[in-house]
Amino acid sequence: MTQYKIQSPQYLGTTVKLPASKSISNRALIIHALSGGALMPENLSNCDDTEVIVRALEGMPPVIDIKAAGTAMRFMTAMLASTECGEHVITGTDRMKHRPIKILVDALLRLGAQISYTETEGYPPLRIEGQRLKGGLLEVPGNISSQYISALLMIGPTLDKGLELHLTGEIISRPYIDLTLWMMREYGADAEWTSIDTITVKPQPYASRAYLIENDWSAASYWYEMVALSKANDVEVRLEGLMDGSKQGDSSVRYIFSLLGVKTIFESKEAGKPTMVTIKKNGHRVSRLEYDFLNSPDLAQTFVVCCAMMGVKFHFTGLQTLKIKETDRIEALKKEMRKLGIVIHDKNGCELFWDGERCKPEETPAIDTYEDHRMAMAFAPVAMQQSIIIREPMVVTKSYPHFWEDLKKAGFIIENC
Question: Per the confidence metrics, is the pTM higher than 0.90?
């Protein structure tokens, strides 16, 4: 087992070139493929999740292995089912074979797709016979993963009748849906909310175009956490390639961290243009944080760890999708936080809270990552306050391949142990 022991620098002051947004990269690749264009998007993410889509689209092999990339599984399933590209089997890691996909498959079957399960019903692998689909009216629950909804929306312009997608009940992760619609329109699609719960996509083909991908606000969250956890007050981190007014749902990180004493300064606020962002302490923080992560669940791990290490009690809701991510993130957080002497509790499968309860911590905590990149990156900033060990640290390649190199450049000492 590979393990990294991490110690922080005495002073944190660095400039970081963040990775390109995985969310935007993956959507851009699917839309680019559906547009039939020759111009590949610029500044594509080099993370594992994006590279599996690139390889799949380049070779279109009979068996497509998307490994642990949940976004790729969902987006590629819809794309393969709705294009005349022959028969393919799409599969992944053992964990991927235990991540549900039935809701998406059922929706595609109602549109006329030819999809069957090759092992366990409701889960990958899938056998897909690609064909042009007619489209029309489709109803799905609004509280499912936004990736299912985005997968359906992106194929909408290619359907003979377009797509009228009606979302029933509570709609979660709306910013990710809006990100998808915005990118579709960037490529010439006619797609919009036509009522509070209905999205209409007209059968208007995508147009090929040059496209520049902005950098990743999710990746920025770990640097915000380092600043917040720093014992010094004069820390300063500069982050390249972020956009004010970004459509990325996780851009909300700047507002939430302002409550924990971190301020954000944009070098330029030119609309639609990435710029340099400086983050530093502002000297003010709340003693308790309540927040609904329904629209940004990928930030939850960062704030659970950060708040507890700062002594900030919290109650976080909107976490229902955490149980079907790379791991059951709710259970993983409860277990690993105990190693830090923090006892957190969950409720209703969608809430996490901490009222200050503590237990005996490990002298040098060794954090298990559960094949989950965000577990590694959310716990690494704990090094700002104490030495910490991260097990199987290279899981970060799923979204931020040069994370450890960036920490070393910032002065962190990282040793194999």
Answer: no
